[in-house]
Amino acid sequence: MASSFFWNRIAKRYARQPVGDEAAYQKKLQITRKYQKPHMEMLEFGCGTGTTAIAHAPFVKHILATDFSAKMIEIAQSKADAQNIENITFLHASIDDLNLRDQSFDVVMGHSILHLLDN
Fold first, then answer.
1. b or e along 46-69 (b: 16 or more beta carbons within 10 Å of the residue's beta carbon)?
2. Domain 4-116, classified CATH 3.40.50.150, yes or no
3. Band of the pLDDT at 4, cuts 50, 70, 90?
4. Quick count: other Cβ atoms within 10 Å of Cβ 38?
5. What are the DSSP calls for the chain, one per residue?
6. Whole-model pTM?
7. Mean pLDDT of all residues in the chain?
8. Among residues 60, 58, 53, which one has the least CA distance to residue 36?
9. Quick check: 76 and 90 in contact, CB under 8 A?
10. How far is CA 29 from CA 14, 81, 115, in A?
11. N or C: which end of the chain has fewer CB within 10 A?
């Protein structure tokens, strides 16, 4: 897996890139929204620049969105602030470093991340 140093270095450039397949991305959002309810607590690991968390924010109570790149989290928070989105907490952390209570989330998502993992 690429290091946080790599993602910190390319974060601004990554944030400027358009989604590779916008139709597929919108379909993914549509499918995942079918399972979301206004009372739900959601965890998104590997949130990157926050685009998916921001898209899902209107459909759930709260999202904890994490990424191991501090620069990605800065960009994500900036995007949420610009849109006055207040139900997302962006946290600079690796999923391995999270210390969360059992059953504290109704939904756990990791989008566009599996291809980056070694195993």
1. bbbbbbbbbebbebbeebbbbbbb
2. yes
3. confident
4. 8
5. ---HHHHHHHHHHHHHSPPTTHHHHHHHHHHHHTT--TT-EEEEES-TTSHHHHHHGGGSSEEEEEES-HHHHHHHHHHHHHTT--SEEEEE--GGG----TT--SEEE--S-GGG---
6. 0.89
7. 91
8. 60
9. yes
10. 20, 21, 19
11. C
Identity of residue 91: L
Q: What is the pLDDT of residue 2?
A: 65
Query: Would you tell me how many other CB atoms lie within 10 Å of the CB of residue 9?
Result: 14
Tokens describing residue 79: 């995007």
With the C-alpha atoms ordered 109, 31, 78, 63, is the resulting torsion angle positive or negative? negative
Rounded Cα distance between 77 and 40, Å, is 21
- On whether the CB atoms of residues 66 and 88 are closer than 8 A, the answer is no
Task: State pLDDT tens for residues 27-69.
Answer: 999 999 999 999 999 999 999 999 999 999 999 999 999 999 9
Residue reference for tokens 């739900």: 40
Q: Six-digit token pair at 47?
A: 């949130």
